[in-house]
Design goal:
The protein has about 475 residues and is of the alpha/beta class. The chain has helices at about 100-110, 120-125, 130-140, 140-145, 160-170, 200-210, 220-225, 240-255, 260-265, 280-290, 300-305, 315-320, 325-330, 340-355, 450-470; strands at about 30-35, 45-55, 60-65, 85-90, 95-100, 120, 150-155, 230-235, 240, 415, 425. Helix 7 packs across helix 10 (about 280-290) and helix 8 packs across helix 10.
Length: about 475
């Protein structure tokens, strides 16, 4: 490793592209740690990489960020384009390309936090080497667990950032139940009734935009936060405590204000993206962090990740692997040479075999909502953001919400038949009836035009009810 940084290096056409030195195949596991020089004006950011054994690594910090555009909306550009590596840094005097959001972090954070011995996935992993990528993802949980702290980069600050942080500080001081009945916080005297200064309409919108930054919906965040021993959150040069984010997330869930914030996002004239559940994701990450030492099942963690997004659909599985017990962990080996179809089928098989029940099939979406058309019909499309209802979800009294079969239970037979073009699952059960007609799916319950679809759906139901009432059919259901 070079002893010091070159401070006057000019970028020239002869500057070569950085080539990673491979890890040792006989010892390990190894990781690379980056040291970032304080950026000089009009000079490329300079980095030095050091290869160390993870077991003997010096104290280091791990960066948690999003590769693509970090904000909720981008009025001028297509945000997906910003996941490209179009920014240049110099790694040991050679060109290394990174994304714009990471470049922003490396430009701002060295003046706010310790930036020697830093682990950054896009820099410390040779992303073009699938074998290395597989191996590093396999030890990702150990990397984040061993880091002295995790530095969260939400992206550059905007004009909304100061207002959002000020409002979060206010919300963290009041009880969620106190605000539960505050339906119209913009009315005169509403905030004063909670013992707080008045809050402007623009403040609520700023908070909505802040908590909808893309970092909060990133699938890798679950593991990175759950395993962190210490967390430092930055938005530009503003620092936010993770404890305050936890309190605000719980406040939004318990007070019912999540819907209120979503309404402010809908008013944004440049809003192009579907709205996600702000509070559920934040509270879900917090809940997993609190229970990370407990054994988490594969089915449970896959369900937990349904509301999060991933640039690579395979990461909807691989990004959660480190949260499983050693026994469960060994059932998933990161392998980016496999297709999305192969991985999603493999996970479905594994969950059905492990649980000896069909509960996981409750995660399968209606065909109208599926994005990956190449999946077998019984395999959930994990790229669809959803909050699936468990088929055996119990009421508070212990009884099941769904019990069409009454006290009858099916015998589980998880046999996969490969004699067909597509994988199919053979099961045993009771023959009840034939489906004679299927109505269209209702997708948007807020759309007035759906009343027509409801009428189309109700027609076959009315015929069926009439036939049962006349004794032509027998049903076990009322």
């Amino acid at each position: 490793m070079e002893a010091s940084f070159k401070t006057q290096l000019e970028l020239s056409p002869e500057t070569s592209v950085y080539k990673y030195r491979p890890f040792s195949a006989t010892e390990g596991p190894f990781i690379r740690l980056a040291t970032v020089a304080q950026p000089a004006i009009d000079r490329p950011i300079q980095i030095i990489l050091e290869m160390v054994a993870l077991a003997n690594a010096p104290e280091y910090r791990a960066l948690s960020y999003t590769w693509g555009y970090p904000l909720y909306e981008d009025p001028d550009n297509d945000p997906t384009d910003q996941s490209h590596r179009d920014q240049i840094v110099l790694c040991e005097g050679q060109i290394l390309r990174i994304t714009k959001n990471l470049h922003d972090a490396l430009s701002i954070l060295p003046s706010c936090a310790e930036f020697d011995h830093l682990w950054i996935d896009a820099i410390c992993i040779d992303q073009g080497n699938i074998g290395e990528r597989n191996a590093q993802v396999a030890i990702m949980s150990d990397i984040y667990r061993q880091a002295s702290n995790v530095i969260v980069w939400l992206g550059p600050a905007t004009q909304d950032t100061p207002r959002a942080i000020t409002l979060m500080e206010k919300l963290s001081t009041i009880s969620p139940m106190s605000a539960y009945h505050l339906d119209a916080p913009w009315l005169p005297g509403s905030w004063e009734s909670l013992g707080l200064p008045s809050v402007e309409d623009s403040d609520l919108r700023s908070l909505a935009l802040h908590l909808s930054r893309r970092w909060f919906s990133r699938i890798w965040v679950i593991q990175e936060i759950a395993l962190a021993s210490c967390i430092r959150v930055f938005c530009g040069k503003y620092q936010i405590t993770w404890d305050m984010l936890e309190i605000v997330g719980n406040f939004l869930c318990e007070s019912g204000w999540n819907s209120l914030l979503l309404s402010y996002l809908k008013r944004s004239r440049n809003d192009r993206r579907p709205l996600g559940d702000i509070a559920t994701r934040l509270c879900g990450t917090t809940e997993i962090r609190k229970n990370v030492e407990r054994d988490i099942s594969l089915q449970s963690i896959i369900r937990s990740g349904r509301l999060y997004q991933a640039t690579d659909p395979r990461d909807k599985v691989f990004a959660l692997r480190g949260l499983l017990s050693i026994k469960e962990n060994n059932k998933i080996e990161p392998d980016y040479s496999k297709s999305v179809r192969e991985i999603y089928i493999q996970i479905t098989r594994q969950i059905l075999r492990d649980n000896e029940s069909f509960d996981y099939l409750g995660c399968v979406e209606d065909n109208a909502g599926r994005k990956l058309t190449f999946l077998p019909s019984l395999v959930p499309d994990l790229t669809v953001l959803s909050h699936p209802v468990e088929l055996r979800k119990a009421k508070d009294d212990g009884s099941n919400i769904f019990s069409a079969s009454g006290r009858w239970c099916s015998n589980f037979l998880g046999v996969w038949d490969h004699s067909y073009t597509d994988d199919k699952l053979r099961i045993t059960g009771f023959y009840l009836d034939d489906i004679v007609e299927v109505g269209p799916a209702v997708i948007d319950f807020q759309d007035p035009s759906q009343t027509t679809l409801f009428s189309q759906w109700y027609r076959p139901c009315r015929i069926f009810i009439t036939m049962v009432s006349l004794g032509w059919l027998r049903s076990g259901e009322p």
